[in-house]
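Reminder to self: keep the SMILES exactly as supplied, no canonicalising. Ligand is fe (ii) ion.
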Amino acid sequence: MRTTIDSYTARSGRLNLDGIEFDDFKDQPLTPEALRTLCYMHDIEHHTICYLRDLLLTPAHSDPTITSFLSCWAYEEMWHGEAIGQVLEAHGQQAGAARIAPLREKRRRKQAMSTFSTIGSAAFAGRAFIALHMTWGAINEWTTQAGYGRLSEVANHPTLRELLKRIMKQEGGHIDFYASEAGRRLGESPKAQKLTSFALRHLWRPVGSGVMPKVEVGFMVKYLFDGPRGNDVARRIDRRVDRLPGQRGLHLLESAVTKLSGHSFAASA
Ligand SMILES: [Fe+2]
Ligand SMILES: [Fe+2]
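Structure tokens returned for the bound complex:
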């Protein structure tokens, strides 16, 4: 596992924006739908630090490999949010603190505790919870990277495509870590397999569901994952989940997309 964490931390860093001309969006703006999706992504990338706070209340904080990863991961995600914020600002929209502060205030008032910290603080979960966290993280990173890929296709804007390509590459580093940790930890523990499949089956929702308004989650899922091409991308993530020890047959993405879009999956393209 050291290889994965060492190679990740060695190449981790602030997103490189050299050559990205944000003023291009002033001449060639994105559609309102693409922009609305980017608002969602901006808010979720910036929410990573709150998610990290919840995670550190769980047994994950006692594993130094995981905390090394989380330190670099949260830093990279923040810069993803900042970069997307520059796209929003080029369209005359609010970004950064002006958008995030009201969202955090709403969360504070609801006194929301994440699903993770609720499960993770339960004494029964122990090390099995770390396997769940790694699996949950892998699925969210697969979904995030796929979402950026779909947005890049649908928006068909050269500057956005280049920016998202760079973000997706870093999401790939997050996937490598989460998925390899998930596979190893699940493989070592039938208890972790059972806890994880139970939690995923009953609690997993698309990234951002606990933070963003329902209507925005529904819009994002329909825009990116509805229709034959989006369905195929979602199916690919479900197949990856199937390959994790003890997680076959959950169909998480298919269930979520069907529920939120109101359409059954199209036949495979
Ligand atoms: Fe990100
Ligand atoms: Fe990520």
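Points to follow up:
The CA atoms of residues 124 and 185 lie 17 Å apart.
The mean pLDDT is 92.
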